[in-house]
Write a structure and sequence with these properties.
By secondary structure, the protein is mainly β. The protein is built from 14 helices and 60 strands.
Amino acid sequence: MTDTDRNTAPAPRDGDPADSTAYWTDLTPGTGRLAPRAHFSRGGRQLTLDGTWSFRLSPTADAPLDFLTPGGPAADDPAWSPLTVPGHWVLQGHDVPRYTNTAYPFPIDPPHVPDANPTGDHHRCFQLPDDWPAPGDAGTVLRFDGVDSCFKVWLNGIELGTSKGSRLPAEFDAGPALRPGRNDLAVRVHRWSSGSYLEDQDMWWLPGIFRDVTLLEVPPGSIGDHFVHASYDHEQGSGTLRIECDVPALVTLPALGVHDHPADLPLHLPGVEPWSAELPRLYTAELAPLSGARPVPLRIGFRTVAVRDGRFTVNGVPVLLRGVNRHEHDPDKGRAIGLDTMRQDLLLMKRHNINAVRTAHYPPHPAFLDLCDELGMWVVDECDLETHGFIHSDWAGNPADDPRWLPMIRDRMRRTVERDKNHPSVVIWSLGNESHHGTNLGVIADWTRERDPSRPLHYERDRTYRHSDFYSLMYAPVDEVDRIGRYEEEPPPETADSPATEARRRGLPFLLCEFAHAMGNGPGSLTDYQRSLEAHPRCAGAFVWEWIDHGLRRTDENGDTYFAYGGDFGDSPHGGTFCIDGLLFPDRTPSPGLAAYKKAIEPVAIDIDPVSGRIGLRNRHDVRDLSHLRFVWVLERDETPVAEGELKAPPVAARSVGEVPFPELPEPGPPSAAEPAGHEHATGTESWLTVRAVLAADEPWAPAGHEVAWAQARVGTSPPRTPATGAGRSPVAATFDERSGLLRDLDGLELAGPFLDVWRAPTDNDRGMGENSVLRHWRKAGLDRLVPRTESVERRPHELLVRSRWAPDGLPHGLRVHHTWGMEGEALRLAVDVIPEGPWDGLTLPRVGLRFTLPAHHTRVRWYGKGPGEAYPDSAQAARVGLFTSDVAALQTPYVVPQENGRRADVRRAELVDPETGLGLRVSAARPDGLFGLTVRPWSVEQLEAAAHPHELVPGDRLHLHLDAAQYGLGSASCGPAPLDRHQLRPRSWRMEFLLHPVTAGDQP
């Protein structure tokens, strides 16, 4: 056909968008597909079809089918351009990504979708190897591992079929359509389809062929499917192996002395090492068809999963899941992630003590589960099903309770189970997420139990739990988890009137399938949650929401790069920043929240008791003893290491306790020479013992020396040193504003302040959701707009007293502030009293502290306190006491949505120094119990609050120094509970006392 013929010949169209029987809007899961099967390399070769394809985007689903002609689209056709597959066209310059949380981005009109249905036509030519099976034979399968949301495929102009179910595989018999040599593959992908109603999973809507496309050679007699049943008897220490196979086959497992055994006949195998997430023992085996076709390699893990006596067990042992929910996400490629990224995710998880993944809310790339088998991870494998958007119709029309949708829903569960059934890491099947309740869920639960009775089922949103083997909730507060652990919770309304149903629910293990919403700065209370879960055998564990921020990398007109969220592409409706809710930033940099989670769930608790002289060890592993760890210690005095060593710890068994004696610690010596003259210790010299549990040898997921757990205790404090007054130093000179009493200059340093500091740039958790928004109350109380009034500035012989009142416009309550300035040795002493007055009526405060400004070139910060990372009242567990140094830029935590960040906790003293001159400021607590919070920023709180993205924050000519007496906790109220009561900051009287010292070049160690 000539180009003229191509352009003038009438082009057929693919259906009528107004026709409810069009394949993209019907309720058929697919046509022409092969039956679902396990994911493995079938008997022959594979030809990858990933790479550069030709692509055309049309605005509607019924675009002309003019690309099915031999050779495909013309090379010079401007409507076509190169596109990378796997990939999403909206991330390669065609249309825009859209993010919604619950709302569908189209009208709720099931199963219909709008006429405006962006449709991507994909075309690729490939060369068939000369020795490939003869065309026309049924010896070739074309496999798509993931296409969003609905597609039709043609090979050499011959239609192979259609499919829906974006995160699930679809295979077609390609043999009859193949040709020798050059072949034309064409795929039409629709952005919206009836399947979209089942995929409302709080994520970016990203259309395209985003997983691998592969041509599989299937020689005659090849194994098409198999199901490995490999159980473990913990009482006998033996395994049982049986393999269902669609053709007669023999199994060989050399490590256990098995050779050419009929696969379908059970094998009893003594001396088997079981598979677990802590010790992921895999046996290499081979499944050979009797036909002589190529054998299939197997990796077998023997393990038995059961719910017994209300507890979740594996291999007869109760297991506590320390998990995360994981969406597939890359800031540049969306869900088209590669093997290296999957491995990076799992290594980060293992190195942060995470032992479980819920594949929210769809089956992951199959290679991810291979890695979970290999590295060791408990997996809750979730079906590609969520209908959350029907909440906006009060669940009217919900597919989960409409029998017309059963074929599509059943198809999705079947494809999930069949694909992933041979992974030992998969220990729980999940029917889906947030789809309310309905008869269709019961059907797929029954089918799954019949097909695979070896794994329990999970489903959270049907509160009768009739289809679930777990009592499951999202975002329950800590006190509710405690009540549930004690079996003291109130029954849900759905079971209150049914004694049998309620009795079954109460007998189920408890699982927090989502908790600790990791949005922005947070989450808080992770340690409280974990101790509660550990305290109650009923609790099977919990999964943080979620693993990674879903930011998409963009560059603005000035060349500044940032991570975009809902609405940044002009998309509407959108879920705004709600996709930025992970323990990793979009580029996979760990957030402070991940460090806090690692500490909360560390598998060894180290209890240092200086009084008894013992160090207790609690092994929180479910399976593994402690012989793989070394316990090393270091003693620090005057912020300097003075001794170190290794403890001889016993190999404490899993879920058991042991202890080791204290190391021999040296007696305190003279003050450290590292501390220059004039560096007064108002808080005294502290001695801290830190004990660390580190890997004794390399593991597949981390090298020897990797820190698994740690603890720290103060083992001594000397009295405060008397401030030095000699060495030619003179008392500090200070200049104050006569009217306000504010400090203006300290020995030539332009130091301005102190200003009362009660506001912070709201965190995502402060903004909260609905009634959980503490920010609403703070703004209503005017805490963001306090107005100062100086009452008096009184000079005395050795003191300056400043009295002021800070209050919001239009409201009667306020804060009375008294500043008292004086000299102490060579330092300027500041005492501040803050007294609330008026009707506060149960309000809380964001923070209470002081703010100073100083020139921006004092960029080197050194502090003695908790570090090295940021810490807040309910997230400080990952910070340890020590001497730390940083520049101001590195003190900022670059949350995708700018907000309060960067606070260092329990600071005793801090220095801000100009690195060029060595001059600067030292701030010290003026009394031993005067620990303070330290934040240093190159911009103001107001600038931080106003910014929508970090690149909008531009450093000014002043640094902003915040010294806190206290701050409000973090919690996870962005989608969960507020901070615990003890971490909420309620009005009371506060007293802060500081020493301000000028720093000279000679003061620097």
